[in-house]
Specification:
- By secondary structure, the protein is mainly α.
- It has a domain of 132 residues.
- The chain is 74% helix and 0% strand.
- The chain contains 13 helices and no strands.
- Helix 12 runs antiparallel to helix 13.
C-alpha cells in the first residue's frame, strides 16, 4: 500500500496543486510590491522587508517539514506534502487522521494497516473538516473587515468624541481622549485560547490514560515517553515565550514552534 501512496499519479496531482498555489503567492507578492511603490513606500525598505520575510520563514517551515516526515510513514509523502503546504497544520492533520483511522477500524495510523478505503476516508475527512474557515471567510469576512476599516473607526470616534477632558487652561479642551489601555480580549481571542487548552488537555489526558492502562502507576510498564516529551516541549516553549515577551526578543516567536518540536523529538529519541 505504501508504494501506491507514493505513486507517480499522486505526486503529479499534489505537485500541480502546490505549484498553482506557489504561483498565486508569487503573483500576490509582486502585486503587493508594486502597490507599495505606488503608495510611495521606499524601495529599499520594501526589499529589506522581502529579505527578512524570507529569512524568518525558513526555520519555522522546519516544523512543516517535520510534519510531512511524521505523516509520510502512514499516508505516504504526496498527501501530507499537499496538506501541510497549502492550508493544513500539523496538530490538526494528525488528530483528524488518527480519528478517521479509528473510525474505519484501523488499530493505528500506519501504512501496514492502510487500505484504499481507509486512505480515501482519511483524506476526505482531513479536507472537509478544514475548508470551513475559507467558506465562512467568503461570506462573513467583509463585515469583519468593516469593523477594522473606516466604518469601525468612525463609530469609535463618535463614541470617544464626548470623552475629551477639559484639562487645558480656562476649560479649553486638550483634545485628549480616554483610552482603556487594558482592553479586554474579545470573544475570538478567548475562544482560541479555550480551544487550544482543551486540545492540549485532551492529548495529555490520552497520554496519562495510556500510561495508567499499561499498569504504569504500580509496575512502571506504561509508556512515559509522550508525557516526558510533552513536559519538555512545554518548558522549551515557555523559554521562548519568556525571551520574546520579557526580554523583548520578538523575533524568537517565529522559531518557538519549530524549536519546541525539534527538541521534543530529540528527547523522544533519547527516551
Amino acid at each position: 500500500m505504501i508504494s501506491r501512496l507514493n505513486s507517480l499519479p499522486l505526486y503529479m496531482i499534489c505537485g500541480v496543486i502546490i505549484l498553482f498555489v506557489a504561483i498565486v503567492c508569487v503573483i500576490f507578492m509582486i502585486r503587493a510590491y508594486r502597490a507599495g511603490i505606488k503608495l510611495g513606500m521606499d524601495k529599499a525598505k520594501l526589499k529589506r522587508t522581502l529579505t527578512s520575510s524570507v529569512t524568518f520563514s525558513i526555520l519555522p517551515s522546519v516544523g512543516i517539514l517535520l510534519g510531512v516526515i511524521a505523516l509520510s510513514g502512514s499516508l505516504g509523502t504526496p498527501w501530507p506534502w499537499l496538506r501541510l503546504s497549502v492550508i493544513g497544520a500539523l496538530h490538526y492533520e494528525t488528530q483528524v487522521a488518527q480519528a478517521a483511522a479509528e473510525q474505519v477500524g484501523l488499530k493505528s495510523l500506519s501504512a501496514s494497516e492502510m487500505t484504499p478505503v481507509a486512505f480515501s476516508t482519511i483524506a476526505l475527512l482531513m479536507s472537509i473538516c478544514i475548508m470551513w474557515g475559507m467558506i465562512l471567510s467568503f461570506f462573513f469576512n467583509k463585515a469583519y473587515l468593516n469593523k477594522l476599516s473606516g466604518k469601525g473607526k468612525k463609530a469609535d470616534s463618535e463614541k470617544t468624541a464626548d470623552t475629551e477632558t477639559p484639562d487645558g487652561p480656562e476649560g479649553i479642551s486638550t483634545g485628549e481622549k480616554t483610552v482603556d489601555a487594558k482592553k479586554k480580549p474579545g470573544f475570538g481571542d478567548s475562544a482560541m485560547v479555550a480551544m487550544f487548552i482543551g486540545l492540549v488537555s485532551a492529548y495529555i489526558g490520552s497520554y496519562i490514560g495510556g500510561f495508567v492502562s499499561g499498569e504504569g502507576l504500580l509496575t512502571f510498564k506504561g509508556d512515559l515517553t509522550p508525557i516526558i516529551v510533552s513536559i519538555v516541549s512545554a518548558l522549551v516553549m515557555a523559554v521562548f515565550v519568556y525571551f520574546s515577551e520579557k526580554k523583548h526578543l520578538v523575533w524568537l516567536e517565529s522559531f518557538s514552534i519549530a524549536g519546541s518540536m525539534l527538541i521534543g523529538m530529540l528527547v523522544a529519541i533519547f527516551v
